[in-house]
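Fold this sequence, please.
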Amino acid sequence: MQTIGINDMARSVAQASYRRRYILGVSVGLPLAISYSFYKIFVENIFVAEEDFVDRDATVYSENIAEIGDQAPGHSPPWLLRLQNHLMKTRFGKWMLLKIPYKLGKANLVRHTALSCRATFYPIGHVAPKDIVTDYKPDLSSPLKSTTRSSETSWLPTTIDDYTTAYKSGKFSPIDVAEQLLKDLKVLNAKLNMICEYFPDQIRAQARASAARYAVGQPLGPLDGVPIAMKDQLDIEGHRRRNGLEFCESGAAIEDCTVTARCRAQGMIIVGVTNMHPKGMSCFGSNISADHGMCRNPYNDKFYCGASSSGAGAVVASGIMPLAIGTDGGGSVRIPSGYCNLVGLFPSIGRVPQRGTSSGTCSAAGPMAHTPQDCARLYAIIAGPDFQVGSDQSRIQPAVTIPKTLLKSLVGLKVGIDQSWNQTGVPDVLFRPFQKRLNWMIDQGAEIVHFIMPEKDVVYAAHLMCFSNEIASDVIRYQQQGKKVDYDVEMISNIQAQTVRATDYYIANKIRTKFMRIMDDLFSKMDIIATPMSKATMAEIGPGDHLYGRADAKLVGKISYFTRIFNFVGCPGIMVQLGHDKNDVPFGFHMATKWWNEEKLFEIAAFMESEAPYKKPVHLHTPPFKNA
């Protein structure tokens, strides 16, 4: 018989005691832990008394305001995104889960705001009666040429003048350009998914017509024969507008939208429809539709182009064409311009007519190009009043102007800087080049005016509420019709549609009125406000993004951090080139100014062009006249 020693007996007793304590701890501690987690996550966020209203008639200037998105969830893996989306359609999800994003999005800041002003639904700047123009007459007479540009390589992008000079020389024609474009587009589009619809026969027909005009010395304008593409939110006659969705929102367009018609009237070759994030509801450019696909960055095809005008950024950056039109509701022209090494303008709300364009109260169509000069010329074509039905917001505006001469210095320029806003949370890879460019501007004579951008958290929440709900109203209808929408767009729309009240939306637009007054006051003291491009470099395309889309609320907030404020109040902004990160993905320098003052932005951008870090992308189309 085996004898059990005292030490063995003691060890057995101790182990049994440990097991009992462990079982007791789990049986008591686990419910307590679950209860505590339930309280922290749900009770503190849901079962609380309604907050008191906050009187926001007085403006609060503080550098220590928590930004929207601080507590927002990061990148959701594909399986989790799908699970979240399904849960939010259940009764449990509608009751519990939808409350949490409402709190994290700080929508309560809007709901509990008390303001005595009226609501402003379209942020259109004031125009003195004597300055209102009554017709559309694009002035393209600017003699500005691209300056001598510094570059890391000998490569420089192809400009409008490169195309038209080749045509006028008689050595090349728009037909030659169109044939090479179609050949290279087939190859590049398979890699980058830039254009989701184009018709070769239409492109060739436009090229033949342009070549005939040059043959007799009668081009329609200084951009005749120059290729251009339109984002999948603008009507092109004969093309389908899908808004980034796998189904058409309507049939093939029976006529061009105002922007497309104005480009066509100049003899430009309308190539087709560019890819975009579905409904423009994010900052990446992911798209699971078989008709669109994941748009990839020409500088590094493992990364996104950014924002919803991703395809427009890619077609210009890859050299397929020198110009494109995007739309911008929170930075979607400026963000892909920055991440694709381009110049992109968000014009004043009301400056570019909206007829035939899918857009909301924070959105405007804007030009994208390699140089400030090309961007300005395209802007001069698409801007200006349109008195047809559907363009009501464009009818009251001053004359559209672009620079006639190049600045010799920045003496007298007042640059507004909120140092805390610009630096807090901005990675060094973005902030240091921004500060270096700012110091260069000071050396050129610019004066820095320090200020504090007030109540940013309230404005961010109000913009999110307006921007997202205007889109969600469509998405919910599509769901009811049984149509498929990307999971990330569907989830955001469900959250907005089921948590935001009509009164919330109205209060958000009262906040817009107040902040427009604040901006008016700020721009009485400074000419422009300069900020870094964003608070983050661009994201790499994830392994499951092509299946379910990309949901990353925190990164979306960081990428659009400096741009969306100006969308909300309708003030124009421009993105210019600044540098490249360790992955060779570009980033930009952002400037904004008062309503209708786009000429000032182009003046400064053209002066800064000598510092533009032009760099040859990995994926590049070269027109035939540049190979000669």
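The domain at 160-627 is CATH 3.90.1300.10 (Amidase signature (AS) enzymes). The radius of gyration is 27 Å.
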